[in-house]
Amino acid sequence: MPIRAVSSKGKEKTFQDDKKMKILVVGGSQGASVFSCVVPAAIRALPAKMQQLVSVVQQVGEGDIHLVKKLYQEAKIDAILAPFFHDIYTHIKNADLVISRSGASSIAEVSYFEKPAIWVPFPRAADDHQTANAEEIVSFGGGWLLPESGSLEKKMTELIKNLLQDRKALSLASSNLTRLKKPNAAEEIVQMVLGSQDRQSGLYR
After folding, report:
1. Would residue 58 count as lying in a domain?
2. Which of 53, 55, 74, 112 is deepest in the core (most CB within 10 A)?
3. What is the CATH number of the domain that holds 142?
4. Mind listing the pLDDT tens digit for each residue in 51-62?
């Protein structure tokens, strides 16, 4: 599975306590519908002061975008929403935290930029391979796995709250991702995660 050529130049590693946590949410070619419901609700469930410490860039399907926009606006949360981002690598570079499905390409590209992520595996993926992908990252502290379940919203709120209170956890997870990095060979990340080239097709499923 070829990985699109990207530059590691200009990586942003902020994680400062006095700056807003920039959260990038991606999933599905038109945006994972579960994220349209769960992520705004999870952030709105944060204490009011914490809500203002978050900014969001989120891929949202066209059918959900007006509702999601309203949810963020009501809570006065800074949010950029679109069905598709042509400059996705810029958004990955600028993110402090990514929320995504855990397909091989998604993990490869997010990890290439050493960005900590909350991985929510697609529950109907063949052989549940997205869970295995995420578990590989979590096993050495490179991110967090939240299964898609009835408690996803609550667990996501708690995790984001904890990360807002301890930005060092983001820095540590980012540092742990360096063990996936090999200069000029980002595609090897996929091989390490899957051990196979053909079990997942496409970024942001």
Report:
1. yes
2. 112
3. 3.40.50.2000
4. 999 999 999 999
